[in-house]
Amino acid sequence: MGKTIIISNRLPVQLQISEGGIVATPSVGGLATGMKSIHNSGESLWIGWSGLTDEETPEELNDAINIALEKHNCSKVNLSQEEMEGYYFGFSNRTIWPLFHYFMEYTEFELDFWESYKSVNQKFADAILENSDEDDIIWVHDYQLMLVPQMIKEKRPNAVIGFFLHIPFPSYEIFRTIPWREELLSGLLGADLIGFHTYDYERHFLSSVRRLLGLEVSFNDINIGNRVVKVDSFPMGIDYKKFRDAAIAHNALAPENRSVLQKRLDDHKISAPDTKLILSIDRLDYSKGIAKRISAFEYFLNKYPEYKEKVRLVILAVPSRSNVPQYQLLKKEIDELVGRLNGELSTVNWTPIWYFYRSMPFKNLIDLYISSDIAWLTPLRDGMNLVAKEYIATRIDKTGVLILSEMAGSAYEMNEALLINPNNFEHQAETLKKAITMPKKEQMARNMFLQKRLERYNVEVWAQEFMTALKNQIENNEAFVSK
Ligand code: ADP
Ligand code: G6P
């Protein structure tokens, strides 16, 4: 086998052109942070969009851009503004994303979006064929590129192709509403192995394949005539060591070397030692349940007023997909909710919510993780949610409480967390109280199990298991064909 080619819409770095030249910043999101660790540790080429549209790329900078990307072992697919509108902001994020997260009311079925999605997927497939050798392993990622596996297989029937979906796969009843449902399934079936975060997503996919394409499904094998496509679940892990080492290093920093944010957090601990910090970190996305979380916080403070001035909610929301109307509306809603709650409940000594709407460098993310007594993550639907895992990995002394939505893929593996239904405010209020008052001994007992599991099933093991299953599948298919 040759090298591994990773393909995703977004590269692990995003380029911007500033006065000083080309600037590369790390991409945010579970796919990018998870796969980056794999990419950095091995010999792979990553193909994707650079963050700059054709219109934002001056001709004379093209070579410099390619060189900047080569440094990260990346190669770009050029996309115009129009393509981004139809394929990315359109079909990917106004059709598939809301539908696969069960937001039917936000889902738009637009023929133009679909046409753009098809042609951009073809562009990615062509870029892969051009940049790879026959014996390379091709690993396609996520919902933006579901047609790519079939497009490659058509041109290169012996290509070894894996596909991993980083978001939920919805139930058949939801999936079947898409006008182009058969094409999407057939696109995916170009792969030899299709991976999901959880068994439920896998089951939903198999059910759609059986009912919409009428294919023979035996356990988790799909017989498509000349070969068998394997489907399996691989819950994605994190780079446990990276987060743990970063937390150890941060804890060891002399006060004068700490970041401004860390100093502020330290001051907070000293001036209000009894006040618990509750942390939430998400991309600003309606699937993350940020608005509901703020309302649930208000409900909690009204139900248990004795916790006023004793808790503070820190919300870090990273700007995301701001050209999509639903994201703009959500931003407005959150601004208003935070403003109203702080306006109504703040005292001279206390602001209930600290709200940051920005991306933060890795070191500040660690500052927040290590300084927070509780992480409160309430997605209404989430493929995995790596933030939950990262929080636990950084708890060096094993204290800290994770409150996690049962609608997140990670909840399946994190039973020792306090699991909640984000729509149930009453239960969340009780859970917050439980978290605030949980004895350290219990916190440590719960986190010990969580950390062991995260350390063992880290992102490297995740990728290895996927790759091993892919190679096994190729061998099985060779045996299948020669029968
Ligand atoms: P999603 O993939 O839907 O965004 P996840 O929780 O799975 O959700 O992944 C989010 C990833 O983005 C995490 O790995 C987290 O460390 C990273 N991240 C979140 N917020 C920031 C931020 N402000 N700056 C940099 N990285 C961030
Ligand atoms: C989720 C998706 C990724 C995506 C990321 C950030 O993690 O699964 O495919 O890259 O969100 O979203 P964006 O649209 O900014 O790439």
From TrEMBL:
Q: Which domain of life is it from?
A: Bacteria
Span of the entire protein shown here: 1 to 483 of 735
Tell me a Gene Ontology molecular-function term this record carries. Answer: alpha,alpha-trehalose-phosphate synthase (UDP-forming) activity
Q: Which GO terms describe its biological process?
A: trehalose biosynthetic process
Of which family is this protein a member? In the C-terminal section; belongs to the trehalose phosphatase family. Belongs to the glycosyltransferase 20 family.
Q: What is this protein called?
A: Trehalose 6-phosphate synthase /trehalose 6-phosphatase
Q: Which GO terms describe its cellular component?
A: cytosol
